[in-house]
Amino acid sequence: MAGNGPVLNLLFIGDVVGKGGRNAVRLLTPELKQRFHCSFASVNGENSANGAGFSLSCIKDMEIADVLTAGDHVWDQKNFETEILSVKNLVRPANLSSLQPGKGWNVFRNPAGGEVAVISLMGKVFMKESAYCPFETVEKILPQIPRTVKCIIVDLHAEATSEKAAMAWFLDGRVTAVIGTHTHVQTADGRILPGGTAFLSDVGMAGGHNSILGRDIRDVVRKFRTGMPTRLNVTEHDIRLDYAVISYELMTGRAVAIRTGSEFLTTEKING
To answer: Which domain covers residue 165, as residue numbers?
Structure first.
C-alpha cells in the first residue's frame, strides 16, 4: 500500500518468437504472475507464427495474455487481415493507416481493480514499414481514453533507442509506462522518470537463447557472410522468456517501480 492507495503489478513480455516462445508464454506466465503478484499480462506476440506475424491458433496458445500487442510483422500471415477482427484483445500499431483493420489501442479490465489502456505504436527510424508519426498519433489517442482509466501502457515497437527514449520523456507524467519492443534484446536501462512514467528501451523476447534474435545462428551468419537471400529458420530449443514487471498506483496510474528478468523454459516445465 502506497501513499496513493494500492500498488498493482503488471507483467510485460517481449516479442514472442515461434512455437518455443508461445510455449514459454503458456507455461511460464502463470508462474511469473504468481511470483510477482501480477494481475495483468501484456504480451507482444508479433513473431509468434513461425517468426513473423499472428495466426488464430498461435493466439490461442497465448490466451493467458490479457492483451496482445503487435508490430511491423502484423500482416505477414495470410488471412490475418480478416482474422484480426475476431481477436478482441489484440492491438496493432495505431499509427498505421486508418484503412487497415483492427484497433491501435483499447481499454481492458484489470482483475485486481481498475482498467488498463494499452496503446500499440511503431517507430519510424530504421523501420521498413510506412507509419505515421507516433508522437502525433499518441497525442490524438490520449484525450480519447476515459479519465477514469488511470493505467496507460505504451508498447513502442521500434529500432532506435533514441526514438524510444524520446517517446518516454515526451509522455512522462501522462502514461504509466513506455516499454520498447522489436530488437529482441533486453536492455538494462529500466527506470522511473521524474513524472512517474516507467521506461525500458526493450523488454527482450521469448525465444531461443542460443540463437540470433530467435533465429538459427548458422542461417544468420550465412546471410551476413554471403549477402545472399537466406531462409532464417526459427530456433525452437533452449527457450528463454524475457519480461518486465511494472508496479503502479491504482488510484493515480503513476509507476513506482520497474524490474526486469529472464526465465528459462526447462524440460521439467515442458513435461509438466
So the answer is: 7-270
DSSP summary character for residue 30: H
DSSP state of 91: E
Residue 4: pLDDT band with limits 50, 70, 90: confident
139 DSSP β-pair partners: none
Interval 100-105 mean pLDDT? 96
> Which pLDDT score, from 0 to 100, does residue 90 have?
98
From the list 30, 102, 42, the residue with the least C-alpha distance to 68 is 42
**H helix runs in 114-266, sequence order:** 134-141, 161-171, 217-226
Q: What is the share, in percent, of the chain residues with pLDDT greater than 70?
A: 99
**φ, ψ for residue 36, nearest 5 deg:** -105, 10
- Reading the block at residue 160, the C-alpha cell is 532506435
163 touches 124 (CB < 8 A): yes
The strand ranges marked E within 81-138 are 90-91, 105-109, 115-122
Q: CA 222 from chain center: how many Å?
A: 29
Check which CATH number belongs to the domain holding 16 and give it: 3.60.21.10
**2 assigned to some structural domain:** no
Catalytically annotated residues: 73
Kindly report, residue by residue over 195-211, the tens digit of the pLDDT.
999 999 999 999 999 99
User: What is the count of structural domains for the chain?
Assistant: 1
pLDDT digits (tens, 9 = 90+) for 135-156: 999 999 999 999 999 999 999 9
Strand partners, 140: none
Map grid coordinates 526447462 to a residue.
266
Kindly state the helix (H) or strand (E) to which residue 179 belongs, with its residue range: strand 177-181
C-alpha cell at 120: 500499440
CA distance 162 to 128: 17
